[in-house]
Amino acid sequence: MEEKLASNSIKSEDKDTNLLECKKEKKLFFKLFGMYIFSAFIFFIIYSLQMDEINSKNNLIKAFNENSELVCFSKIVSKSNGFKLDEIKTNFLTNGIDIYSISNCRLK
Predict the structure, then answer these.
(1) What's the predicted TM-score (pTM) here?
(2) Do residues 86 and 92 touch, judged by C-beta distance below 8 A?
């Protein structure tokens, strides 16, 4: 009879330790899963911001090539004012004296 009680108490302790280990593993799983989801969310935010910047530059270059005027640091930049895309540095506009980055410009 005492052996049955002893074996039952051992089984009960095993169940408790298994339950605690299960809870710890579950907590660790959800913590890691949350970190992965958060990392993926941050990655997609950065990716979308980068793609927006690239599209903005491409739109400004397209507008410049179509003879639209751009404003760069309060100076009007266009092909009619003698500016052209720099051959050496991509995404830069120059008239031989002044050089402007296309990312610092906006449509007039």
Answers:
(1) 0.66
(2) yes
What is the total residue count of the chain? 108
Q: Band the pLDDT of 55: cuts 50, 70, 90.
A: very high
DSSP secondary structure string for all residues of 25-86: HHHHHHHHHHHHHHHHHHHHHHHHHHHHHHHHHHHHHHHHHTT--EEETTEEE-GGGT-EE-
Q: 60 and 107 in contact (C-beta within 8 Å)? A: yes
Most confident of 13-27, 45-59, 63-77, 93-107: 45-59
Two structure tokens written together for 35: 């970190």
Q: What is the average pLDDT value for the chain, to the nearest integer?
A: 85
Which amino acid, 62?
K
Residue 104's nearest CA partner among 77, 66, 81 is 77
